[in-house]
């Protein structure tokens, strides 16, 4: 099958900014509450950032899983666009999160891959916990519309939430961590199959042995064709494995973006490497496709959802 690579001329994005911004109208007001500590049964609780629109009801819940050594404070261009589209965005700090931008002082827990998805499960199972601590959201969250977005290591977390199975380190037994309450997922630059890891990373990351054939849709995987991670020598296509090695049917799509690196044109802002990766156009394409896909998958009647059929035609789907 021929590969479809999205170039700068294919997608315009007034999606993330909305047509209101193009007309010079005021954008919807966004509010963030940080930190919020949820009592999830862990020793220290779960620290999250909650972002939401100032107005509106029946707001879908979006859980955003950060990459390794990033944190709840990252991905603000993506978060702002999602909130302006009407999402409540919850960003948990996982066990490998940075602290004020600095790497954790302690070694990464061996089971962080598991605790990550367990945090996502708790959030999906307890949507009422958010308005209990953020009163402005009382009666405003639509608990039947929950989705997850994960970047990099967070892409693996999101894949597990959607039913991919994992061979747990030290065991050949495969286990599922599927979360039925999550209706859709976007995997942004996720890790590929463990067989593609370098020898060093096979030792360092024994938790990357996933089987995506059990991953239910709808799932959109987005990769950059200049994403050259040190984890693999297979090049950018390694990040397409969740789609390429996933189910042969069931609302799965892959979007390849020309000229784009691991941070996909600026989803975490313009300063992430490689230099020159982030541009307003690339950032807009990724964010716009993410919102259009999620809105359509969650049956939202929005302008972005109406754009998804056109965008889908320029992606590889099954």
Automatic annotation (TrEMBL):
Keyword Signal set for record: yes
Keywords (A to Z) from UniProt: Hydrolase, Lipid degradation, Lipid metabolism, Signal
Alphabetized InterPro entries for the sequence: AB_hydrolase_fold, Chlorophyllase-like
Residues making up the signal peptide according to the UniProt record: 1-22
Pfam family, one: Chlorophyllase
Domain of life: Bacteria
Gene3D superfamilies, sorted: alpha/beta hydrolase
Name listed for the protein in its UniProt record: Chlorophyllase
Organism: Sphingomonas agrestis
